[in-house]
Amino acid sequence: MLTLEEKGLPYEGKLLEFFKGQHKSDEVIKWNPRGQLPTLVINDTYAINESFATCEYFEKLYGQQGTKLTPDDPVQLAKMLQRMHEIKNLDKKAEDVIHYKFYKHGVVDGQIDPEKAKKLVEVFFEEFARWEIHASEADYIAGSSLTLADLIVFPHIAILVRFGIDLQKHAPHLLNYYNRMVKRPSVEKTWPPHWKTSPSNTGVFEY
């Protein structure tokens, strides 16, 4: 949706609730057998089901429309592609923490093991520190202007904030980046409605 907004393309969005299992509905499974989101249906004819693929699809088709999201400079292009794909490292380590400490997947007798939780958080912050360095290098995550990398990376940072990570304490450069991104009209328009009305979950990334 961020890419669609930045490119100025018309679309019809539909918000689904994971906790209600709506992502596993027949309507979604029809287009995405894995039952994952986002699922983008084009003219009720075909679908694209991966975030990276969706962003690249629209940039290839509408590269000259709206915001230019792919740099011409080969060095900046390389950096953009690198950031787009290395976010998977942060995502995996964040998921490990969230699944164990918040959802309590893998806990024994309902009790979180403090040592295991601490180790998961430490591993997460080792990776998180790399992103703080990235954010310190320029206004955006892959250079001086917005690129596809930002549309991929920012939602991951926003989810971390949603789960209570203290950017001011742990990553002041990422805080500046986060504050810069949330002011973009594309982000304001696509911000999850319940994030505006319900509190964030706190303490997941602290030990």
Structure description:
- The protein is globular and about 50 Å long.
- By secondary structure, the chain is mainly alpha-helical.
- Helix content is 57%, strand content 3%.
- Strands 1-2 form a two-stranded antiparallel ribbon.
- It has two domains: 2-61, 3-Layer(aba) Sandwich (Glutaredoxin), CATH 3.40.30; 74-197, Glutathione S-transferase Yfyf (Class Pi), Chain A, domain 2 (Up-down Bundle).
- The mean pLDDT is 91.
Primary descriptors:
10 helices, 207 residues, two-stranded antiparallel sheet, 2 domains, 3% strand, 57% helix, Glutathione S-transferase Yfyf (Class Pi), Chain A, domain 2, mainly alpha, Glutaredoxin
State the gist of this model.
With 207 residues, the protein is an all-alpha fold. The chain is 57% helix and 3% strand.
Elements, N to C (H/E): HHEEHHHHHHHH
Tell me the major beta sheet.
2 strands, antiparallel
CATH topology of the largest domain: Glutathione S-transferase Yfyf (Class Pi), Chain A, domain 2
Quaternary structure type:
single chain
Mean pLDDT: 91
Helix content: 55-70%
| Name of the CATH class of the largest domain | Mainly Alpha
Poorly predicted regions are: none
Q: What is the straight-line distance between the termini?
A: 35 Å
Radius of gyration: 18 Å
Strand content: under 5%
**CATH architectural grouping of the largest domain:** Up-down Bundle
- Categorize the overall geometry: globular
Number of strands: 2
Estimate nothing, just give the exact number of structural domains. 2
Structural category is: mainly alpha
- Biggest sheet strand order reads 1-2
Number of helices: 10
